[in-house]
Amino acid sequence: MVMTESKLQEGTPMTALALSAKIKAGKVKVEDVVRQQLEVIKKEDATYHCYITVWEEEALKRAREVQAEIDAGQYADSPLAGVPIAIKDNICTKGQRTTCASKMLENFRPPYNAEVIDRLEAAGAVILGKVNMDEFAMGSTTETSYFGITKNPHGVEYVPGGSSGGAAAAVAAGEAVVALGSDTGGSIRQPSSFCGVTGIKPTYGTVSRYGLIAYASSLDQIGPIGNTVADCASVLEVIAGHDAKDSTSVPTESYSYTSALVNDVKGKKIGIPKGYLGKGLEEEVKTAILRAAKVLEEQGAIVEEFDLDIVDLAIPAYYVLASAEASSNLSRYDGVKYGYRTPDFESLQELYKKTRSEGFGQEVKRRMMIGAFVLSSGYYDAYYNKALRVKALIKEGFDRAFEKYDVILGPTAPTTALKIGENLADPLKMYLGDIYTVSVNLAGLPAISLPCGKDSKGLPIGLQLIGKPFGDKDIIQVAYTFEQNDTV
Amino acid sequence: MKITDETITYVAALAKLDLSEEEKDRAKTDLENIISYMDTMNEIDTSNVEPMSHAFPMKNVFREDVVTNGADRENLLCNAPVQKEGCFIVPKTVE
């Protein structure tokens, strides 16, 4: 059974663009689309468990509103009018619970919408609900969720990847047409790779983080997951833009990402870091990546291998910095203003400690302790400052590479999807799987993961394309060209 | 890097966590493995490199000191575990 194909229109991939065009042409009603989509969720989610909260009534109500607005001539330019979308549960939705897949926020109802939610609503998208993730986005398998694991639609004994595992699995299982995830060290790209869908981590500062529950603020970025490059570009175009509410939001010349949907890579220079094809990379993944490079070469791209320095040191630097920021960001959960509070305490200190010990899961506690350690006096220079220096070198390495290349090509992950439970017992082993994704976040770069074949187990392989800062259009154009010309 | 019992007690206190004996043992093993792995950063000489906080040059963003979002007290308090008369309720903090 081919799970990446539509459950709404059997046999053809369900794309947001085609669906929205059909809706606007009056061939199908938004309410019917949403109703069918909710039925698919009801049927499939018992198996895959992509959703934490399904907005059944709200989605149908919103569908009727959007239909009335379309009938009145609104959304003429929107590629997402009437399109059902799933939202990772660390993105705030006003009055609707936003859990971060944690007991700590089990009943948290944000008093405001994230900026991306307002932008999606203004484009006429219909939110289906909130999807599963690793607790506070800390994990690469979606197994650390307080609400239970999500299963990979390409094989239920496999993880969907993480932390945006619910979002990627929902798109792969036809439980949403598109989804929003967030990416701090690969959390959009790696689950997209494992689930055989496409996901974009935009350049840092492209999409507002206002209302995204913070994990590591200097690395976090929201981005789209969909079935095609065009769908992802369309969603990105809707959610991107300068926002005064996010002081790290960077105004950009053009947000017209769909203008890069051009089937042409003639003369584009593509570099493959040798270190991305080295030890630890599964042979079948390597073969698929090199085949993808060949496809682009046949289309006129100039492809060559090059040396990118200190690839290996990106992981320790990333985990130092991400954990440090997490320990600071998560200090806000104190059982006072919102979130879980322990029922049994006497002093204020006891309230803090018991609330946090009972409200957070193992991986979150582990990273907060690592963060506290690397920031503590005596270790700050040896770990935190050292990691910031390594980060500078990683950035320099990419800067040099982009003097020669338009786009960097490689695998998204060293393996295809892992078996459920395989890495949960060994955190370090899980961290090592992030080797090709974390450096992108450290350097603030844009990157996309898209399917480029399957291994002998039938599990999808992800191709990663990395762009220079604000070169999101470059990677979209190369990805689109690969997608259009990949015949396998 | 050897992680001692004292280090675990110290970082748990910094992170405001109460750990069971079992959790402490596990944390000791995990942190030792992870921190030792982080020590591989020492393979590279960074003495001539400045620490980089942001990948792109960032400057402070100023705005006029004008309230734009109102005091949405009721809405903000509705998530409080315990509230009373428009305030958060906490245990006695000053003896």
What attributes characterize this protein structure?
heterodimer; A: 488 residues; alpha/beta; Amidase signature (AS) enzymes; 11-stranded mixed beta sheet; 15 helices; 38% helix; 13% strand; disordered N terminus; B: 95 residues; mainly alpha; Histone, subunit A; two-stranded antiparallel ribbon; 2 strands; 35% helix
Q: How would you sum up this structure, described in words?
A:
The complex is a heterodimer of chains A (488) and B (95). By secondary structure, chain A is α/β, with parallel strands linked by helices. Chain A has 15 helices and eleven strands. An eleven-stranded mixed beta sheet of chain A has the order 1-3-2-4-6-5-10-11-9-7-8, sandwiched between helices. In chain A, a hairpin with a 5-residue loop joins β10 and β11 (460-467). In chain A, α2 runs antiparallel to α3. The longest helix of chain A has 25 residues, at 380-404. Chain A is globular, with a radius of gyration of 21 Å. Mean pLDDT of chain A is 95; it is low at 1-12. In chain B, a hairpin with a 2-residue loop joins β1 and β2 (87-88). Chain B has helices spanning 5-14, 21-38, 73-77, and strands spanning 83-84, 87-88. The longest helix of chain B is centred in the first third of the chain and has 18 residues, at 21-38. Chain B has a domain at 5-42: Histone, subunit A, CATH 1.10.20. The mean pLDDT of chain B is 91. Chain B has 95 residues and is mainly α. Chain B has three helices and two strands, in the order αααββ. In chain B, strands 1-2 form a two-stranded antiparallel ribbon. Chains A and B meet through α9, α10, α11, α12 and α13 of A and α1 and α2 of B.
